[in-house]
Design goal:
Blueprint lengths: L1 E6 L7 H16 L2 E7 L10 E5 L4 H11 L4 E6 L12 H7 L4 E5 L8 H13 L2 E4 L2 H10 L7 E3 L19 E5 L8 H8 L10 E5 L4 H7 L2 H12 L6 E4 L5 H9 L3 E4 L10 H8 L4 E4 L2 H7 L4 E4 L4 H13 L1 H14 L5 H21 L1
Parallel strand pairs: 1-2, 1-4, 2-3, 4-5, 5-6, 6-7, 8-9, 8-11, 9-10, 11-12, 12-13
Length: 369
Amino acid sequence: MRFGVLSTFPPTPCGVARFGAGLSSALGAHGSAVGVVRVADDSPPSGGQVVAELVNGSARSVAACADTLNLHDVAVIQHEFGIYGGADGVEVLDILEALRVPSIVVAHTVLENPTPHQRHVFETVTAKADRVVVMSDVARKRLSATYAVDRNKVATIPHGATLPTAPRVKRASRPTILTWGLLGPGKGIERVIDAMASLQDVPGRPRYVVAGRTHPKVLAAEGEAYRESLVERARLAGVADSVTFDAQYYGGAMLAALIQSSSVIVVPYDSTEQATSGVLVDAIASGRPVVATAFPHAIELLCGGAGLVVSHDDPDAMRTALRQVLTQPRLAGSMAAEARQLAPEMEWSVVADAYVQLAQRVLAERRTQ
């Protein structure tokens, strides 16, 4: 099986790029041939799987991208509104139109309240695709309820994750609350900073580590003003010595070690409609206890006990949840155990196998048409 994968790709620092790299590597390990068409940015491509680059805004590049994907058996298109050229990434439609091979579109965002143009773009994408993959049940239900989509085209395959293989890192004597990912408004870091003052009496005086560089688009628009505002917020709250900002972009073994060193992972997003979170999947796959705000993917994945879900507008609930995990070893242990039960179905090898099976079905359907 030869897969052509269109995606942002490392060293681009974004969740779609990490997903594209994880899926491509897993498909390769599965025995498939993978050619990646990377959505170009200011950084040079890396990795032997990258065979071409898409330059947004260039009709010639769009045509060349489609030609490259057509050299494979199946094209796997990562869809996110902000990664392709044109309003709401409308240029991806030209690529899909030019494909002669079957296409599987991976929907990273399924908006509950799209603008009319976003709806048009997304519905046209799904109409042109042979299959549409969503990564959660809530995304599948939202897709069916909100958009004019052929339900027979929709498949649910979980977001992949790398399960820890190295021995667990010895945790520091000072308990660590961890949030990681690209930094920018909407991540809800403020909620945890505000909770830290009430946790100073917890044995070991917990610290909150916020790991990750500032999102490139935020950096371009306003520099490090947002990060600096968070530092000032911690200072004014009197918890500056308990909140650490690490501007490094973590990945691979370094991210795994960071996660394993934490006592609890907190995913405090502002969004009330996020249907897929790669950070949440990585947190569960790592077997660590999780506290998250009540966005849909968190409600879905944590309902069995792998974590605690708190209301977005309830600071007391956030403080209480963090305190419970930090002070009740049995609770933290049961949450970690439940996370480890969920993890195997998220392993990249399992996810890659699901994509191979889906591609085989799509190819078989094409032969009978």
